[in-house]
DNA sequence: CCCGCGCAGTGACTAAAGTCCCAGACTGCT
DNA sequence: AGCAGTCTGGGACTTTAGTCACTGCGCGGG
């Protein structure tokens, strides 16, 4: 048993999909996986391509997105290590519905479609796990639809800021402080809008006294005031 | 064996989810199903409620939708007889992500969550079928996101008209003729906008000479011209 | 040191979306 | 016939989104 195999089995065991499997089972599966490396900005696959296997992220981040004819992007998900990517086309046999790009150097464990399907037939509990994971994905998509359909860019930005403040914010004398995790452009892609509106809305919130903005450094001076804006208007 | 049971087994056999099962298996499952009736406009379930079982449509149509605080609706899917509704929460245990309403009198076969999950453990091929169905659902959601994020109301309406013309249109001397399947309000809910914009955009297309509109009766006079509008602008 | 490049901020403008409101047509019911 | 309810058409207006073009900053490489 090589070091590589042990490593892959470890990775597999840490994914939500396979976390309940025993050590021997993980090693069996590991013999079937291929390790793939991607540089920052490299595509794992493109929208419309046929899907031949399951990708599991061992290291790095992967962004799932759609591109419009005019060049705009809509991010559907950002997946982290331990998560799987594009589980669904593996089962329904259709092409990838969106593209996937490594946003930092990434290491991927790849299992062929046939192997994984066969594995699911032998281990129904894995199939149920897949359904669970897919359920979470579907909920996120419904959430995106809800936001796009019902809310303004301003509200979506505020809601994103509040989430960031909660998950990454550090309290300081001036308020809750954190860094934007990406460029305005990328944030715009996630919120389904354009760069300029991110910039303008941030400035507007600053003018209203709710935030201090210094490039990507954000200080939320009035969390309550900010979340109040989600209800009204 | 009662007439009712025979009927339910038939219904089950016609659903995409269970179409591969043998007669005896269908009958076994049928003993576990409950028949439910819903009047037009009645809710099968509401967003946020816990999900205790799988709904299979025997008769009637069911509309899946989200409601905003301000009262707007976004339709996620319209399901027909033979289709199942909300397969996913059955597996991930979470609440319903959206509400479901019978848009005409409907008859539903209901299988409890525990029974269906148990059944999937015994019949992994059913679990894989579920994954397939869910895959199609996910693709549709991604399609909705794409439309909301990248296209204008006008383009979404045109694309909806073209689909209707293809599926239900009848060629006549004046062009391709068909009826809108629902009110402007309902169409607006499906396209993620408001009634007025549907009305106005239809009138605008008529003024441009591409359509003849008489309430719900539509005559597409220039199919090519209409589809050309999807590319440009 | 300077050049190029990617990112952020901004002004001016256009277009699209949405709101409010009312009038008229049609349907079904009494 | 008359009434209530639903649906469509449309006028007038406000707000939001998006586009285009330009400025300026900061950083890394030649």
List the helices and strands and how they pair.
The structure is a homodimer of 233-residue chains.
Chain A: H1 3-14, H2 23-30, E1 33-38, E2 43-45, E3 53-59, E4 62-67, E5 73-79, E6 84-85, H3 87-92, E7 99-102, E8 106-112, H4 113-122, H5 124-150, H6 153-168, E9 170-172, E10 175-179, H7 184-191, H8 195-207, E11 211-214, E12 217-220, H9 223-231
Antiparallel strand pairs in A: 1-8, 2-7, 3-6, 3-8, 4-5, 4-7, 9-10, 10-12, 11-12
The first copy, chain A, binds a DNA duplex (30 and 30 nucleotides) through residues 152-154, 183-185, 193-200, 203, 215-216.
Describe this structure in words.
The structure is a homodimer of 233-residue chains. Chain A has 233 residues and is α+β, with helices and mostly antiparallel strands. Chain A has two domains: 3-149, Jelly Rolls (Sandwich); 151-231, Orthogonal Bundle (Arc Repressor Mutant, subunit A), CATH 1.10.10. Helices cover 47% and strands 25% of the residues of chain A. Chain A has nine helices and twelve strands. Chain A has helices at residues 3-14, 23-30, 87-92, 113-122, 124-150, 153-168, 184-191, 195-207, 223-231; strands at 33-38, 43-45, 53-59, 62-67, 73-79, 84-85, 99-102, 106-112, 170-172, 175-179, 211-214, 217-220. Chain A has a four-stranded antiparallel β-sheet. The first copy, chain A, has a four-stranded antiparallel β-sheet with strand order 2-7-4-5. In chain A, helix 7 (184-191) crosses helix 8. The interface between A and B is large, with 43 and 41 residues. Chain A binds a DNA duplex (30 and 30 nucleotides) through residues 152-154, 183-185, 193-200, 203, 215-216.
